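Bench log, entry 3. Co-assembly request; chain sequences pasted below exactly as received.
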Amino acid sequence: MKGRAARSGLILGAALALLAAAVPSAGQNQAPPAAFGSGLRYEIWVELDATGKMLAGKEEIVWTNSTKDTVRDMLLHLYWNAFKNEDSIFFKEEAGESLFGRGAGPEEGEWGWIDVTDIRMADGTDLKPSFEYVLPDGPGTAGDQTVARVVFPVPVEPGESAHLRIEFRSKIPRTVARSGYYRNSFFLGQWYPKPGVYEEGKGWNCHAYHLNSEFFADFADFVVHITVPRGFVVGSSGKAADSRTDESAGTTTTTFRQAMVHDFAWMADPRYLRIERDFVASKEVTPQEYEEAAKLLGLTADEVRLPDVKMILLIAPEHKGQIDRHFRALRAAIKYYGLWYGPYPYETVTMVDPPFRTQSGGMEYPTLFTAGTRVLTSPHELEPEGVIVHEFGHGYWYGLTATNEFEAAWLDEGFNTYSTGLVLAKAYGPGAIPFVFKGIPLDWFLRVPKVFDFETNRVAAIHTVRFDPVTAWSWKFYNRGSYAANVYMRAATLLGTLEGWLGEPAWPRIMRTYHMRYRFGHPTEADFIGVVNEIAGKDLTWFFRELVGGTKPFDYGVSGLASVEIPVHSLGVFDADGSRREWTAKTIEEARAAAGSGTGGAPPPMYRTTFVLNRYGDARLGGDAKVEALIRFKDGSTETRAWDGQDRWIRMEIVKPVPAVSVQIDPRGIWLIDENLANNSRGTNGLRLNASKLMTQFLFTVQLILHFFGSWS
Amino acid sequence: MGVFKAILNGIGTTARKPRITVILYAANLVFALLVALPVLALIQAELGHSLLGTSVRPVDLMWIGEAVLKHGESLAAIVAGFAGAGLAYFVLQIFLYGGTVGRIIDREGPARLGAFAGDSGRYFWRFVRLFLISVVFLALTLGAIMGLVSAIFEPLSKAAVTEWVPLILSNAHFLIALLLLSIVHMVIDYTRIAVVADEERRVLKALRHALTFLKTRFFRAWSIYLLIVAATVAGSVIFYVLLGRLAAPTVAAAVAAFLWMQAYVFFRVWIRTLFVAAQSEYYRAHPY
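Structure output for the full assembly:
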C-alpha cells in the first residue's frame, strides 16, 4: 500500500486538502470501558493433568437476557467434541478437502473430547435431563456433538439472569486446529463450555465447529483459576491476579481476570521463558505523529492519544535470540492499530511463541495471541513480524469489533489482512518472500525478491473471484483454498481498492469510525456499508454488491491506440462552388505544398488519436465511479477522459497537433482488484526495457535448467 | 598424479580445446532459445506495448499472477513442452558427452566439429546403456543407504523436544544424499572415461574398471570432484554478486547483465568439460 499511496498521494494532495474540511471526522463513540459488568460472567476453575492429558473444570456462568425475548433454553459450544471422532462435522469436512486439508487426523489415543459431567442452575436444579446435542447447521451434520442444548426450568425473562454451574472433563487432543498438546507442551483454546450469542428475535446463534470456521461469542467478564503441575510456565488471556503453590499436591494455581472479552485461551509449558516489557506510548509515538493522526481523522490530539500496555512474551528457549524482534513487531502493531483505529483498551497483551509441534501458531484470542517463528530466520523476511502484527490486529478486528466469524469471516480476516499489510509496509517496508529449504532461509544465499502484502493478496484475489463471494458463510466456500483466498486476501484487496478510491481523509475516517462505533459490539456488513456511505457522502452499496458479494471478475483495459495525421483534404470527388473536383494523393500533396509556400508557412499537421477502452470483466462500475483514461502526447502534454464503464467498449477520439504516445486507464492505480493491469495501458512503440530484461532473464533461467538436466546424462 | 595437478592439467586441456566448450555452449543456447521462444513471445505480447513493461520487476508477483490467470489453460501445455524439451536436451547431452570425452581423451587430436560429432555418434549407444545402468546403480545405492539413514534418523526426529533436532537431522540427511550422489556421479564419469580411453564396448566391464580404479584412490578422486564443485559454487557466488550490480534501469546495464549471464552459462558449461578433463588426466596417469 505504501507504494500505491505514494503514487496517488501527489496527485490527490491538493484535492484532498480541499476535501478534508467537507469529510465528517472519525466518530469517537467511545465504547464501554474495559471494566467488569458485562451481561455475561464466567468463573472457571480448571486443572491440567499433564500426564494423562486431561482437563478437569468447574464453571459458573451468569447470563443476562438483555433482549426483549423470553428465553427458554441455552445453546452451548462444546468445541473439543469436534476432535472426538470422524463423525464430527470438522472431520467430515476435512475428509472432503483433497487439496487444502489440515493433514492427518489424530492417531490412536490422541482424540480429544469434552464431557459435561454436571450442569445445573445455581439453586441446584439439575439441567442434565434436558441436556442434548443439537445440530444447528442442519440434519446433514448428524453425529456432531459440538453444540449442546439445555432447557431452563423457568424461562428467562428480559432483564433477568440465568446462573449455571457446570462441571466438565476433557481429553486434550494431540493438537488439532491449534488446540492440544505435544509431549509436555499445551495450548488450550476453545476448551470450556461456552454459550452461543442470543440474538433478539432470532434465538441462539451457535453454529457447530466447522473446518473453516472460527468463532463467535458474547463479551463477558472472566475470572479463571488455572492449576498446573508446579514448574509449568502459564500464559493466558487477561491479567494474572494472584498465584499460589500447593506443595503437597505439587501444583500451582494462578488466577487470571479480564473484563469485556469474548474468549479465554491459555498455554502451559515447563520449558518456556516469560518476558515482560512495556509499551510506553510517550516513547513510541511522537507529538508530530499524534498531530498528524488527529488531523487526518478530524479528532483532537487527546482523542488519538495511546495508553501504555504491558506486553508479555512467552517464548521457547531456542528462540531466545528473537525476543527483541518479537517485541519490536508488537510495539509497531500496538502503535499503528492504536493510532489508526483506536487505543488498545486492555492493560495487557500476551504473545505466545507456539510450543513446538502443537501447531498452535498464528491464532488470535482476546488479549492473547500465538505468533510463530523458526530457529533459523532471515532479517529480510517478515517472519515472525507478519504473524505478530496480524494476530495482534485481530485484537481489533475480532477482539473488539466482534463480528460473526461463522457467517461473515471477511469482516475480521479481510479487515485484519488489509490492516496487517498497512502496518508492515509502514514499519518495515516490503519483506523477502520466505523461501525456506530444510529449515534454512534461502535468503541467506540468494537475492530473494521482496514484496508488499497487497501484491500477494491481489494475486490470490484475482484467482479466486470466480469461486465464491467474499461474503459466503465460512463452511460454504468451494474449498478451504477459496475460503482463505477470498476471506483474507480478496477482501483485503477490495478494502485496498476502496482506500485508493476514497483516499484521505475519508478512508481513514471510515475505518476509525466503524471500529470505534462498533467496539465491544457485533457489527455486520450492513453496519460497515452504513459507515462507508455516511463518511464518503455517497452510496457505495453497488461496490459491495458487485465486488464483495459477487463472483464477477473486474477487468477494464485498453485495446487500441492510433494517432494518424489528418490530411489537408479528404480523398474523393467533391462538389464546391458549382464545380466538381476529384482530390487524389497527388493533388492533396500539392495543396499542402502550396499552403506551405505562403507567408505563414504550412499549418501544423493535425493528428487524430483514437483509442478503445474495454470492459473485459463481467463486473461493472457503479455510482459515480468512472474509468479514468490518461492520454500522453509526444510533446509531453496530457489529456484525460472518463467513461462510465457500463458497455463492453467505447471508442474515443482526440484531435490535436501532436500524436499520442500512450493511453492509460486508472493512472492513479486505484483499482487494485483489476485482474489484468498489463492491459490497462498501451503505447505506440513496442519494446520496453524491463520487459526485455525479463525476457533475457527467462532465457538465462531456461539455459540453467537445461544445463541442470543435462548434467545428469 | 596429485589432485591439484590433475585439475591444472584438466584446465590446460580445456584451454587447448576451447571448441568443445563452445560447441556445448552453442547447443545450450540454441536449444534454450527454441524452448523459451513461446514464453518470450508471450512476454512481448503482454508487455511490449504496455506501460507495465517499463516497470515490471524480474520477479513481479503481480504480473506473474495475472499472466498465470490469463494463460492458465496453456500452462499444462507449456509445462509439458518444457518437460519434453528437457528430455530431448537430456538425450542430446548424452550424445554430446561422447564428443566431449572422446575429444578430451584424444589429447593430440583435433576438437573440430566433425571429429566431435564422430565421437558423439560412436559412443552414443554405449553412453545410453551406461545411463540406464547408472539409474539402477543410483537407485540401489541411494535407496539402500538413504533408507538406512532414514531408519536411524526418523525415531530421533519423532522424539525431538525442540525443532533443532529435526532441522539438523533433515539437513544431515540431505547432505548425505548429496555426497552419495556425487560419488555415484563420479563413478559414472570414470566409467565413461574408461569406455573411451579403453575403447571398451561393454559398459559393465568399464564400470568394473572404474570401480577397480577408484577402489585404491577413492578419496583423491573424490577430492578432485569436490574441488571442482567448490569452484562452481565460488564462481556462482561471484556471478550473483556482480549481477546484482548490473540492475540499473539503463539499456547499457541490461546489455551488460545479459552478457554476464551468458558468461556464467559458458562458465558452467566449461566446468562440465573440466570435470571430464581433470578426471581423464587422473585416470590416465594411474593405469591399473
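Chain A touches chain B through 60 residues (CB under 8 Å). The two ends of chain A are 48 Å apart (CA to CA).
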